[in-house]
Specification:
This protein is mainly α and about 375 residues long. The chain has 15 helices and no strands.
């Protein structure tokens, strides 16, 4: 097997494991809400821990992948990621739960920066786009994770055993796949952050990631709660499950679609699908309309983050590791503001009203993306 294929396979496994671990946590949020008797605002406070720890981990992750080859931070963060997932399940009070969640999110940030840095470096070895399919494997991991969670919930398997089993699986597969991860991808230039007037190219890409993170992160954290408390569905993982199915499928075909229609049109279509899907869920909060709505949202959000990272990778100003860290900062801010704000709005009004936030974020993708391409085209012409 050709070396670059082995490298792609190994990196794909790490994308997959990142997705399955995150989905395992996210699909158990309703369980944690019930176990600790949280109201929506209290759950929002707990979720607030994740973006804060990610912000703390961001400069560390950026420094690690810029200073060293990304494969070492990648494997170490995966090990700690799996361990912290286990700790969430074995937490005995809110304090230990918060500490475990802090470590989980901190390691996830380093892991995500490292795998996206590797993906940009690996893309240079391939003529066809591969970032969409790599992110598709993250979604596939999420899909399998939530499917397994659904079985665990259905058969009343304890959260401790559930999270531990996923952690052990991830550790074994991750250590086996480490051998063929891309080596010597440390950039020789563009590793220093330059302060001064904000770069419009980076700023607009960052805003696009921010809006996508509000929508995607909100679906991860609140789709299960919506299905349980608004749709009144006992198997509450169905909302998250159907969202993940359509996001996964769409990511695997997104590279080919983008090659045909171009990224500029793809952002418009993504915005349209997100908006229609959220409206359907809000206006008709019943089983089948909600299933269809979450499906459409999954299609809409699928390509936004992979596309934006691909555009960021063309930066001449910064190395892949640093530009991914910069753009990821906006994504963390989306996570920081979005999911917790949903909790506060739901506590003040209700969850249906709170979901309007996702609608607004989806609509804003159009003007921001079109402004980016107009500036990009002006630079090209000049």
């Amino acid at each position: 097997m050709e070396l670059k294929i082995k490298q792609r396979t190994s990196l794909s496994i790490y994308f997959f494991l990142s997705g399955i671990c995150f989905a395992t946590w996210a699909s158990r949020i309703p369980t944690i809400k019930t176990l600790y008797n949280f109201n929506e605002a209290e759950l929002g406070n707990l979720l607030f821990i994740m973006p804060i720890s990610s912000l703390i981990g961001l400069p560390i992750s950026g420094w690690l992948v810029s200073k060293f080859n990304s494969r070492n931070p990648l494997v170490f963060s995966l090990v700690l990621f799996a361990v912290s997932l286990t700790l969430i399940g074995y937490s005995t009070n809110v304090f230990y739960l918060g500490v475990s969640l802090f470590l989980f999110s901190f390691c996830m940030r380093i892991l995500n920066i490292a795998i996206n840095t590797q993906s940009i470096a690996l893309q240079a070895k391939f003529e066809k786009k591969i970032l969409g399919s790599l992110h598709g494997l993250w979604s596939l991991g999420g899909l399998i994770g939530v499917s397994f969670s659904t079985l665990m919930v259905k058969f009343n398997v304890s959260m401790k055993i559930h999270l531990l089993s996923i952690a052990i699986f991830s550790l074994i597969l991750g250590l086996i796949s480490y051998k063929f991860l891309l080596k010597n991808d440390k950039a020789t230039s563009g590793n220093k952050l330059l302060f001064g007037k904000p770069d419009k190219f980076i700023l607009l890409l960052g805003i696009l990631v921010f809006l996508a993170a509000v929508c995607e992160g909100g679906m991860f954290d609140w789709s299960g709660v919506y299905f349980k408390e608004v749709v009144k569905e006992e198997i509450f993982t169905l909302g998250y499950f159907i969202f993940m199915i359509f996001m996964t499928f769409s990511r695997f075909i997104s590279d080919k679609i983008i090659d045909k229609i171009g990224m500029q049109k793809a952002y418009i279509i993504s915005s349209f699908f997100i908006s229609i899907g959220i409206l359907l869920v809000i206006i008709f909060p019943y089983f089948w309309p909600s299933i269809i709505g979450f499906s459409i949202v999954g299609v809409g959000v699928a390509a936004v983050i992979p596309m934006t990272y691909a555009l960021a990778g063309t930066s001449k100003k910064y190395s892949p590791g640093l530009i991914v860290s910069i753009i990821a900062t906006y994504g963390i801010l989306g996570m920081l503001i979005g999911p917790p704000l949903i909790g506060y709005l739901a506590h003040l009004f209700n969850l249906k009203v709170a979901f309007v936030l996702f609608l607004i974020a989806g609509i804003l993708l159009i003007p921001i993306s079109q402004l980016f391409f107009s500036i990009k085209n002006e630079k090209f012409v000049a």
